[in-house]
Specification:
Layout: H1 19-29, E1 35-39, H2 44-50, H3 53-60, E2 65-69, H4 79-86
Helix pairs in contact: 1-3
């Protein structure tokens, strides 16, 4: 954020054998209130073979975890469509 208008940020470098544990450790150390993360929403077989970082974080996190799946569902409408529908 070059102009300083966004939320405060700080660069962080974490190395770990497990992304889920790195996320959870960071949340604990920094007293994070909410973790927001994306999920691929893979099928059962792919999930069984590869596991899920998001699922592991949800299970072990010290705070609530909001997972967001892409693509969005049909009931989520971009702001421009909502404004056009009202006009």
């Amino acid at each position: 954020d070059s102009d300083g208008s966004g939320p405060p940020t700080r660069p962080v470098v974490i190395t770990s054998g497990s992304p889920a544990y790195a996320i959870v450790d960071y949340a604990r150390e920094n007293r994070i209130d909410l973790i927001v993360m994306g999920t691929h929403g893979r099928g059962a077989l792919a999930h069984l073979m590869m596991g899920s970082v998001a699922e592991r974080v949800v299970r072990i996190a010290p705070c609530p975890v909001l997972t967001v799946r892409n693509p969005e569902h049909e009931f989520v409408r971009p702001d421009t469509l909502v404004a056009a529908a009202r006009a």
